[in-house]
Design brief:
The complex is a heterodimer. By secondary structure, chain A is an all-alpha fold. Chain A has helices spanning about 1-45, 50-75, 85-100, 105-130, 135-155, 175-195, 195-205, 210-215, 220-245, 255-265, 280-295, 300-325, and strands at about 170, 175. Chain B is globular, with a radius of gyration of 24 Å. Classes of the chains: A mainly alpha, B alpha/beta.
Amino acid sequence: MALAKRKSGLALSRDNRWRLRKFVADYGVYIALAILLLVAAVLTPKLFAVDTIAVVMRQAAQLGIVAIGQTLVLLVAGLDLSVGGIFIMTSVVVAEVGNGRNEMIAPAILTALALGALVGLGNGLLVTKRRVPPFVATLGMLVLVKGATQAYTRGVPGGFVPEALGIVNQSWFVLSVPLALWLGLNAIFIFVLRGTSYGRRVYAVGSNIEAARLSGIPVDAIRISVYVLGSLFAVVSGVVLTGYVLYVDRFIGSGLDLDSIAAAVVGGTAFIGGRGGLLGTIAGVLIIQILSTMVVLLGLDVEVQFIIKGLVILGAVTLYSVAATEA
Amino acid sequence: MSKPILEMRGISKSFAGVQALKNVSFRCQAGLVYGLVGENGAGKSTLMKILAGVYKADAGDIIYKGMPRLSASTGEIIASGISIIYQELALVPQMSVAENIFLGREPRTSMGLLDLGRLYARSDELLSRLGVALDTRSLVSQLTIAQQQLVEIAKALSQDADLIVMDEPSAILAGSELDQLFDIIAALKAQGVTIIYISHRLEEVFRIADEVTVLKDGEVVDSRPIGQLNRHTLVRLMVGRSLDEIFPQTDHEQGDLALIADDIATDTILDGVSLRLHAGEILGIAGMVGSGRTELARALFGADPLTRGEVRLAGATPQWKTPSQAIRAGVALVPEDRKSQGLFTALSVRINVTIPILSRLSRLGIVRRQTEEQVVEDARQRLSIVMTSPEQETQYLSGGNQQKVVLAKWLETAPAVIILDEPTRGVDVGAKFEIYKLMRQLNDRGIAIIMISSELPEVIGMSDRILVMNDGRVAGELLRENADEERIIELATLGGAEAQSA
């Protein structure tokens, strides 16, 4: 009797342990975000000042927009390293085509979007038709786009960013234009992923590409479209970044490329595809941005920021892999 | 009774609240062959993984060679003489046979360099102990699946295994390959090695086992010497249903011509196959693994491009070149390997079932959730799929229920022709029976079925006609009335012309 009781108690605790793991996989990132906010409340209460929140959210939006595209690409078991090149290309295109004329902002952005779409198409074609691994294909594209941009400008970008692009710096309390854009795009794409047949197909392709093909899904078209979307989101991030600084910066958005991957992964989107989503990525973006801000508020060196970021990414990935192996 | 080499006592194990093993006890004498049978999910593999140290039992003791085994790593367990050969073989394709056998334990010279001479000599010796001729220098990627399995067995021997567990070794073998495996098992037994043989196929168990243990729902139902069992009692122990009920029969008229394939070939082994398929008919495709059966299925479905010939539905409908065109034309393929080709294991039952009919379920690209949930609920009822909710990820379903999800998905496309490649592989006997019943119902509705299967009783029991494949061609066609296992094996191994003259 006593033994039976002990055994069932044992079984229950194992059961709970499994539940805990599943819980970590599904909600870990939100809990981590909550804990981080609590820690911030103690260590850096200044984080919660309206001005600081506004800055954090603006920066989160800059990262968050490109992270939407990165999440989509990761969902089809891909990866996009070329976004860093697209930021620079966008900045140059906006300055060259816009050249200080406000009426040219729209054509400039459209040109940047078109060129971005071409880069995404290149990525997609390399990955699907030539079967180049995404890491290699998009790395090559990154170098190509950066090189082409530099060759075009000969190292000295011409033109001026139109003043009116400064509209992205408008804000209503903490709700800045980039933040509104980020939230709006998230709302749209959360719905696309969950509620549309396109979203289903994205998950299906990422989850099992052969099964997707045999289910009649045009797998190559889906993957190419996702790479194009990834590049378009990078262009939007690039426009926001350019409007923020209002000049052509050869290092614009540096670090956001890898941060966008980190945000998605910390948010629970799996490198192997088919798992994760945009809500997690939002939390991932916030975690990264809040950590960076806290380091600044604490007066620590910038290097510390990288160390903490690295630890967070490694911690998250370790936690997810432990959860995945037992599930 | 001599002392057992292995005794497992009162083993219990649960996963995620599901009790996989309940107080299971199992013992082995040295030098005998033990059959471990049971439906899928009965706990056979779990029990063996506990033996291998992959899982830790929640309760119970393992006594091996007279010593209680405390916690040990998988490496220590292998070193103690227990080897497990899993269904999914764990070889490095780019390495040679010998390198695989001694992977991580390569013989070294006194200088610490690789001793290739001894590596090959010892590998040759091991293979000759198994009585097989295989070049130990050839790459594993060039071997057949059966030969790869032999390499795994040789690897087990190289580790001085006294106890070898084979987890469904026959699932990937056919005909003569199986005979060879049985010869090897007999040879190992004569050398005093103990074998635990896990299988779904009862014929095999009767051929080689000395004693049979039946697991059902994580408990030992019975453990008996083979002499005290026959097929009927064994099936009853496993499922509680007798054998006659397995293949449901109906009288149905053969309908009009449904599908025509003329002299089709692809880049694969497939080389000139023609067939006619009628509405309401089951056409069985038999043949060895590698004879081109799966390639035929893929070619008919447009998954592999044709290099010559044509496939079309009767009534001069257009041909198809891709799976999506085939689906629209009314053809469905339930692929051979559920996990790698049929299922989105990380996605829910709901998403799996509706993936091929999304365009029908959506308006302006937006999926109508209510209609979709109704479709899934109907499928659940019709196929009696056991799941906790439509949102359950399919990786957590049993093999039988996974297969039902794949079937449900294809039935939703309302096909006129459905190609089933090994529809009951890795499915327990209960679910098998349900799948057979479903196939009959589809027949009655006029749907034409092509069924590829390695299990001859299944091919003979279910098919109206049987095509036997050999080397990418049709070696012969048999009507159900004059089909028997010997005739099929003859065609499958000798090919058409030779079988005629034989």
